[in-house]
Every structure is written in C-alpha cells, then in structure tokens.
Amino acid sequence: MNHPAGQFRPLCSPGFICLVLGLATLAVYFPVCSFGFVDFDDSGYFFANPHILTGLTWSNIQWAFTSGEDANWHPLTWISLMLDETFFGAGAGGPHVVNVLLHAANSILLFLLFLQMTGAIWRCAGMAMFFAIHPLHVESVAWISERKDVLSAFFGLLALMCYVRCVHLVRKRPGGASNAPSTSGENDHKSFRRGCPVLFYILSLFFFACGLMSKPMLVTLPCVMLLLDFWPLQRLGDRVSVSAIGRIVIEKIPFFLLTAATSAVTYVIQRNGMAVVPLSVIPMGARIENAFVSYARYIGKTFCPTGLAAIYPYPGYWPGFMVFLSVVLFVGLGIVALAGLRRFPWFLTGWCWFVGMLVPVIGLVQVGEQAMADRYAYLPMVGVLVIVIWGAGAFCLAWRPPRPLLLGVSVLLFTVCAWRARDQVLTWKDDGSLFGHALAVTKDNYMAELNMGF
To answer: What 8-state DSSP symbol labels residue 313?
Structure first.
C-alpha cells in the first residue's frame, strides 16, 4: 500500500501530495479573503489596537514582549499581526490570507512529519488531508484573532520535524542504532551524548520556544516527543524499562524547562488579567465533569462536525447520564490503548496525544466562560486522526477490500468534509452570521446574544 504502481508514482510523490494539500486548503478557505473583521476579539487584536495599527516598530516589538494584554503572553503573535499591517495595510484581507497560508503549511508539515517517521505515504496523506479540510479547524483559520493557533502549530510542527531529524541522524552515526528501529534506547542515548546533530536539536528547541511565544497551549509538546519516541520512532525498543524512559526524558530537560517557565508566566498574566475563574464560581467537581464531557464532545465533533459554534456556553451542570457515558468512553478508550500496546502501538500514541494536548485547555484551570472551543482541538485532533487512519490501514491490510472501493470511500469522505468545512467558513462572514449561527446551534447562549445585540 505504500509503493504505488509505476504508472501512478509521479502523481503519488510527496511533492505532488503537498501541492494537492495546499490547493485543497485554499479551495475550502478561499472565501475568507473577502471577509471583514468580526467584533469578537478582532478589535483588541487588530482593528482597534494602536500597537498593531502602527505596524512593526521597535517600540511595538518591546510592547509585544512585555504586554499581558488580553490576559495572554504571545509576543510573536502580536509581531505577526504587526507585519500584516505593515505589508497589507489595516484591512482584514491580509490577515485572513496569512491565516489560510499558515494552515496550508501546517497540513503539509504534518504530512512530511509523519512521512519522515513512518514512510506510509498514503496514511500520512489521508491524515494530512483530513487535517487540512476538517470543519473543526475553521475557527482557528477563519478567525483573525486565532492567528496564535495556526502560528504556534506551525512552529510546533517544525520543532517536531527537527527533533525527528535529529533522532534519525543519531542512528546513522557510528555507535547509533542505524536506520532500523532501535531495539534498545541505550545505543540511541550513547550516540546522542557523543554526537547528536546539535544543529537540529537546537533548531527544535528554538522552534519550540517560538511556538510557546505564539500560544502557550504548546506546553505539552515535550510529552508529544516522548510519545513519538515510543511510536513510531521506537526508541524504547521491545522491552520498555525505567532506565530507557529516564534516558529519553533527560534529553528533553531543556524543553520541559521552557514549558515550566511559560506555564508560570501564563498563569500569572491570566490571573492578573482576571481571566482565571475562581473555584468559588465553578467548583472543581463541576470542572472535572465538564472535562470528561468535553473530551467526548471533541471526539463527537471530530467524527460528526455539526453544531459548531464560536461560543459554547458553560452549563450550570451536566446531566448525570452524560457525565457517566463520557467517563465510560474516556476510560474505555484508555483501556483499549493499553490492551493493544504491542499490537497497535499507534493507538496509545494517538490517544495520549489527543488527551494530553487538551489538558491545558480542558477547564481544570478555567480561563474564560466557555465550556469548550473548536480552536482548542487544532493540534490535539491529530491524535484522533492517527488512530482512525492507522486503524483503517490495519483493517485494509487484514481484509484486503477492493482498491476501487477504497478510493470511492476516500473521495466521498473528503468531499463531505470539504463541503461541511466550506459551509462553516461562511458563518464567519460577518458578526450577524457568526453570532446568529451560534444562537441557532446552542441553547441559553447569553454571550452570543450579547454580541448579537451589540
């Protein structure tokens, strides 16, 4: 399945697939180029922010690195918006185009990242295509204020690519573990100490820092690196030991230090900005219930992306049966991941990727009044896609369905996904469309009512 017939090989080259991914993204998101701003954070992020409207200057750069405006610290996001104003003016067209181009780049980087690790060209292409055109990603791309999402993902994926490249080069050096998957973490670690390609390690650390300065949600990326060490890099070998785990953790201490520093800065800024909701308002029990329900809702909206809204109101409580079913789903999938540890290692990596990357925004530390948000699933969704795509690949290898049937099902799924995403894009055309749609698909949404009133 990974080696197409000779006559199709030019059409299935990585370069051609990258081109298709880019064109598919542009086709879905092309309408946003004519959209204006929405009065939903866009005023503070762009059209009423004097630091953005005066473009890229030294004083504005200093402000970006010292400001806690909007209860966030993301200087590179501010700088990128300043560059938009400098190159495209104060209109909304330029920032929209840049968001779309960043999302297209992220889809291509995701494809190349997993292709670099697995070599499974069709699975990687399918996963990247769903990432590119999935409706759940519309909020991150069509909303100018969510520049931080696509920008942080761009740097995060670059950091992972450099890290994987570093690991591969380590294995090719004398004393490394060659090109084959490591049977023991020992050889990798010795070669890492003696002759790790320092350039790629430093680049990975640099891009990770840039990602954190774009959006702090990227703090879980070092844990994602550990997951990739398990699968598909297989640096732990067949016999996972405490010493082997300790070795790969030690390699990532600089990454964890950046995570700790960014987490501390973000918490202080959000607390001082009065964005952190106190426990007296939302008790910890209610937060835990909402966390389990939100995990289930994110999974549901990944497979059935309907009822998507810019604002999901925080309920007073969730019905007991919904909480119970959400806990059962969460625990059940975790058990399946552990049970298939050896036979289906990609399931554990995908599940932990999804769960772990959502931890900073799942609501245990509640910031804002939303119960969940589509934008929070931007990178975490990759974990679900890994499970689905590699699971489908395992099914196809076991049952060998006819290739025309596989092609037909794939085209149908991509078409439906793209159509649904294009429909969701149009809801971001203006304030009336955005908040009217939110009111149509949610209940008791006072925030959407308030914005619609304005």
So the answer is: B
Judged by DSSP in three states, 379 sits in coil
Q: How many CB atoms lie within 10 A of CB 375?
A: 23
Q: How many CA atoms lie within 13 A of 92 on its CB side?
A: 21
Angle at the Cα of 287 (from 286 to 291), degrees rounded to 5?
120
The residue among 454 and 275 whose pLDDT is bigger is 454
pTM of this prediction? 0.93
Helices (H), strands (E): how many in the chain? Answer: 21, 0
End-to-end CA distance of the chain: 55
Per the document, the length of the chain is 454
Q: Which amino acid is located at 328 in the chain?
A: V
Dist. CA 309–CA 441, nearest whole Å: 7
Sign of CA dihedral 275, 254, 156, 214: positive
Report phi then psi at 367, rounded to 5: -120, 120
10 Å CB burial of residue 398 (0-12, 13-18, 19+) is exposed
Q: How is residue 57 annotated by DSSP? A: -
Predicted confidence (pLDDT) per residue in 385-419, tens digit: 999 999 999 999 888 889 899 999 999 999 999 99
Q: In angstroms, rounded to a whole number, what is the distance separating the alpha carbons of residues 441 and 180? A: 50
Question: What does the CA dihedral 338, 344, 345, 350 come to, rounded to 10 degrees?
Answer: -80
**pLDDT tens per residue across span 322-378:** 999 999 999 999 999 999 998 999 999 999 999 999 999 999 988 888 999 999 999
